[in-house]
Structures are given as C-alpha cells and as structure tokens.
Amino acid sequence: MSAAEIGVLRVDLAAIAHNWRALADHVAPAECGAVVKADAYGLGIARVLPALSAAGCRTFFVATPREAAEARALHSTARVFVLNGLFPGAADTILAAGAIPCLASLAEIEEWSAHARRIGARLASAIHVDSGLHRLGLPAGEVARLAARPEWLEPLDVVLIMSHLASADDPNDPASAAQQQTFERLREMLPAAPASLAASDGLMLGQPYHFDLVRPGYALYGGQASGGARAPVVPVVSLYARVLQVREVGTRGQVGYSGAWSASRPSRIATIAAGYADGFARTASATTDRRGGSVLIHGSLLPIVGRVSMDLITVDVTDCPILVTRGDIAELIGPALPLETVGAEAGTIGYEVLTRLGRRFERVYAGDGA
Ligand SMILES: *Cc1c(COP(=O)(O)O)cnc(C)c1O
Fold this sequence. Notes:
Blueprint: E1 7-12, H1 13-27, E2 31-32, E3 34-35, H2 37-41, H3 45-55, E4 59-62, H4 65-74, E5 79-82, H5 91-97, E6 100-103, H6 106-119, E7 123-128, H7 140-148, E8 156-162, H8 175-188, E9 195-196, E10 213-214, E11 237-249, E12 254-255, E13 261-262, E14 267-272, E15 294-297, E16 300-303, E17 313-316, E18 329-333, H9 339-345, H10 350-356, E19 362-366
Parallel strand pairs: 1-19, 2-10, 3-4, 4-5, 5-6, 6-7, 7-8, 8-9
Antiparallel strand pairs: 1-11, 11-14, 11-18, 12-13, 14-17, 15-16, 15-18
Helix pairs in contact: 1-3, 4-5, 9-10
Bound molecules: pyridoxal-5'-phosphate.
Pyridoxal-5'-phosphate binds next to loops.
C-alpha cells in the first residue's frame, strides 16, 4: 500500500483465472461461462473479462444492455447473454452490441422476432423459462402456447434454453430437484437447443444440474455460494485500510455516534479509514450488547465497536498482542475474513459485500501477467 493511500482493494486476476479453470474442470464436458454483471461483481469488468477470456472463457452473462455493450467492446467475438432480457426499447442497444437477450416472456419473443424480420436475419436468442423461482422467465403455460406455435420462433436462432434455481445454496432443499425436473420437462416442449440451469451454487449440486452450460459469478470471485460442498475456488479479493489514530478510553467511555458502545474496561480504540461510503455496511456496527463486524490487525481479529460512520470505523484493539499504532494497516476482507464472514457479521451475504465495495479504495490488480 503506497504511502498516499488510505485504502486498497486488491483483486487477484490470476486467482479469477484459476477459479474459472477449476470450475470448468469440475463441470466438464459441460461448458463453463462467466457472469460479469454489475461490473464483474464490483471488481471491474475491464480487467476481469480479459483475464477470464485469456483463461479460455468464451461465454459471458451480464444483466443489462449497457453492460452487454461494455462486455462486447472488451471482447468483440465473445458470446454475451443479457440476463434481464428485452425490456421495451432495449433491442437497439442489444442489437448494436451483438449480444443475445434471454427472452423471458411471449411479449419479448414477439418483439425480438419483429426486429429479426425487420433486419432480415435470424437473431441469436436465449429462451428463459420459469422452473419455479417465479422471478423471470416464461411460465409453463406460455411455454405450452409457444410449443403449439413453432412458427413464433422461426425468425429466431435459439442458442440457449435457460432457467434459474431458487434454493441451490441449500443442498438439502428438495426445491432444486423439483426445479431440475420442471426444467427438463419445459425444455422438451421447445425446439432442441443447449440448456443452462446452474449458477455458482447449483453447479455444486452435481452433474444432473450442469446441462450444457453453467453460469457461475460469485464463485469466480472467490465466494462460497453453496452451504454444502465447497467450490474448488480460492480467494480473489483483499481489502486494506489505514489506522488513522489510536486513543485510550476509560471504563464507560463512549465511542462513536450516539454513544452506542461504551467500554467495560480501560480500552484502546483504533480509528480506521473506511466507512459506509466505501460499502462497509453500517449494519456491521456494534453496540454495548451486540457484536458487529471485525477486522484483522497484526494477525489478530479485533471487534468493531460503535457505529460504522461514512468514512470511519472504530475498533477495540486492547487485546492485540502487538501495539497498534497510527499508520498500521487493517485487513477488512482477506483470507482470515472471507466474504461470507464479513457478510454474516453485517447481517447480509458476501454477494452484497462484494458488489457494494466503494470507488474510494485504490484498486490494485495482481496476477494478470502484464
Ligand atoms: C446472477 C446470476 C447468476 C450468477 O449467480 P452466482 O450465484 O453469482 O453464480 C446466474 N444466473 C442468473 C440468472 C443470475 O441472475
């Protein structure tokens, strides 16, 4: 961390490439794509997509048309699917980007077909069917209507039939097997095309969930999405911030806004340069009777005390065997503080921690061979 920096987000691109290869091996002979929506889960699509592509990834998923344009600008021959499909007015951006919408209703199929006829070309398309998540996708009734009218798909080149699992993070939840069977059934009603059902958690449920293509996001970025088997991935993200000041407070000394935490003994409190404006959740605050998040300083896990504020957090460093002083570096995410732990301590999930990490941290990319 350079002297002028108070916070650094380190992204290990070699670890992302390793994770993609490990997942690709795990699901072979199925293909492994990569979900790079939300700026590659906040890590920076401009660096992440080229690293994945160098590792061998050819198929990418984004959420929005604008993200698709960004992805195709980075890799003009990649297959880019737009998970949010075709909302009214989105077609021109998707067409210009050369991306493939995941069509989620008969209305979307009709609209995309009209564009295909206008252009006089069969347009690459994915059909998103709803196997039970009830979020996006054609419900069974619409799939049946579509099956009865094959000419509706004539203007389109259906390259993928997909669906998404609701509860794949819990390997004991019977909903996944039910969705898998519903997906098989809906898929058989449609023209033959490659299929995709699983994200990071679903691909750990085993081969019946892999179909032709899997769509991990979180696992590529080092996350453990499944509550069952551990994905064969390594951590990608570390986050460090500076200790700005260390102070002594006496017994009953209050720390931070509203005096939400007060000391039960004479304490040393370190103030660290990261806050909710940096995406460090305010729900990681600790009061006198409720634990919050933690940070790692000199190898010791130490508790946050008081409220997380916009730019600062306060940490009780009394029990750190090595004296904590101004300028020391605290680890906020890293091997000892995985995304899942940081999320749980803030009452949320690692996904939200990752995608909210702020723009104020200096971003350092390691391991891209450049
Ligand atoms: C976000 C998303 C994914 C990737 O999910 P992860 O849990 O991050 O692997 C896959 N498919 C769909 C439809 C999604 O919305």
